[in-house]
Each structure stands twice: as C-alpha cells, then as structure tokens.
Design a protein that fits this description.
Blueprint lengths: L1 H21 L15 H26 L9 H23 L7 H18 L3
Helix pairs in contact: 1-2, 1-3, 3-4
C-alpha cells in the first residue's frame, strides 16, 4: 500500500512541478499575465512548486525503505524520474500542441523505463 501511495503522490507532485517549470511558457497566451515581469513569473512558479513539495516530501518519506516503505533511495530517484518524464510527455501533448514527438523521443523514454527495470532488478 505504501508503494502505491508513494507512486500516486509522485505523480501529483510531478504534475505541480511540470506546471511550475513549464506552465509559465503559456502565460503569454493569457491576458492577465501579459504585463508580468520575470520576477513575478518566478514568484508564481515558486507558489506552484510549493504544492509540489507538499506531495514530493511525503512520497519520499513514506516510500523510503528506512521509514517502512518499499523503496531504497536509488529506486525512489529513478522512479521519480520516470514519472517526471511521463507527466512531462502528457503535459507537452496537452498544453503544447505544437510540440511533435518523434521516434527518438520514444526511444529515449524506453531507455528511461529500462533504467527503472535495472534499478529494481534483483541480481
């Protein structure tokens, strides 16, 4: 159960982080943000990233093996990276419709998934 909780929390945290890191690139399309300067954009992104931490920190705390979770530190990190790229691909497809995914993007994603496989593999 802790493993599923960790994964769900990581998905939620990465959704907020992707929005904080890349969402502001679409602010130019919104009337309310056209006059905002860089510092205002940074503050808005930090405010969004705060919610990322509300999910990321508990996900790592509950998922970490030494706290009773199922994952060691390396597994947590690689899992987070795979979830991060998954969330980003969904975000890019939905929000940045001008971005086209090519075969090399999918090959790179497969390599990330292979990293997850090898990190979790017990030899």
């Amino acid at each position: 159960m802790r493993g599923l909780f960790t994964i769900v929390m990581l998905f939620i945290s990465n959704a907020f982080m992707t929005l904080a890191w890349y969402g502001h690139l679409r602010f130019k399309d919104m009337a309310w943000s056209k006059s905002l300067g860089l510092f205002a954009i940074i503050l808005i992104s930090w405010a969004i990233a705060f919610f990322e931490y509300l999910f990321q920190v508990p996900a790592n705390k509950f998922g970490f093996k030494e706290n009773g979770g199922p994952f060691n530190l390396l597994q947590l990190k690689v899992l987070q990276e795979a979830i991060s790229i998954t969330v980003f691909l969904i975000f890019a497809a939905l929000v940045f419709k001008t971005e086209k995914l090519a075969w090399n993007h999918f090959v790179g994603f497969i390599f990330i998934l292979l990293a997850v496989f090898f990190i979790f593999k017990k030899w």
